[in-house]
Amino acid sequence: MGLLDNKVALITGGGGGIGRGIARRFAREGAAVVIAEIDPASGRAVAEQVTELGGRGFYIHTDVLSKSSIVDAIAAAVEQFGGLDILVNNAFVPAKNVLLEEKSDELLEQTLTSTIKATWWAMQAALPHMRARGGGKVINFTSIDVDIGAWLHADYNTGKAGVVGLTRSAAAEWGRFNITVNAMAPTAMGATFHQLAADNPGFAERAAAMRPLGRCGDPEEDIGPAALFLASDLSRYVTGETLHVDGGLHLPGYNSRPTGVAILEPKLEL
């Protein structure tokens, strides 16, 4: 018996990185997992892995910048497996890393859409189906970047802070439906990490040293179990929480100031 036997989960961005790790972990516990992913090749590959690991996998093409695409993904999950018990809002669209004053309205809109709006749309679409099952689990994603005010991520930090507010509001309101709503702030060795490690010798070692546990997280073995806790009955009395899953990185934080940025800029003459 697995912790997620007879449960149906949908994971946005489930085709890679942390989403893939969570999907594989859920599969090991017997879940049917819908991979809502924009990339067909990676999405289908992970859906196949889910089935191979003992779950039931299904891929649906999903663009989190589109409300209709998200709503259609929820509907496809219900049509394929008969209901929905777990929603993991993991996907977002990365934005250009520039200073706050250089962020365009277009960048801001894209980031807010793929973070807080996409999470909002998915939760609202999932609600009636979770109510029909007598309850459910929502896992949203925030970031340590919000806590430290990470440089070059002003739009991302704003969106993820909004996700925390949405998580707490939904937890307060949806408890009456037996739905728990929690957030995770994970860091792990996903695609971005591996690219940075390849481009910057010593990056992986420095990243590990920043964490009290002295190592970087694995999406499946380190992040997956935390998501499993929030998705299963093990967390049946936990709601409205933000869980840091980062090897303790949130304790010391980190310095994100880019090199070459002045400590104090000269007064602007208008």
TrEMBL record:
Position of the signal peptide:
none
Q: Which GO terms describe its biological process?
A: fatty acid elongation
Record-linked CDD domains? SDR_c
Instruction: List all membrane-crossing ranges.
Output: none
One term of GO molecular function: oxidoreductase activity, acting on the CH-OH group of donors, NAD or NADP as acceptor
| Pfam families (alphabetical) | adh_short_C2
Q: Matching InterPro entries, A to Z?
A: NAD(P)-bd_dom_sf, Sc_DH/Rdtase_CS, SDR_fam
Family in the record? Belongs to the short-chain dehydrogenases/reductases (SDR) family.
Q: Which PANTHER family match?
A: 3-OXOACYL-[ACYL-CARRIER-PROTEIN] REDUCTASE, CHLOROPLASTIC (PTHR42760:SF40), SHORT-CHAIN DEHYDROGENASES/REDUCTASES FAMILY MEMBER (PTHR42760)
Protein name per UniProt:
SDR family oxidoreductase
The organism is: Gammaproteobacteria bacterium LSUCC0057
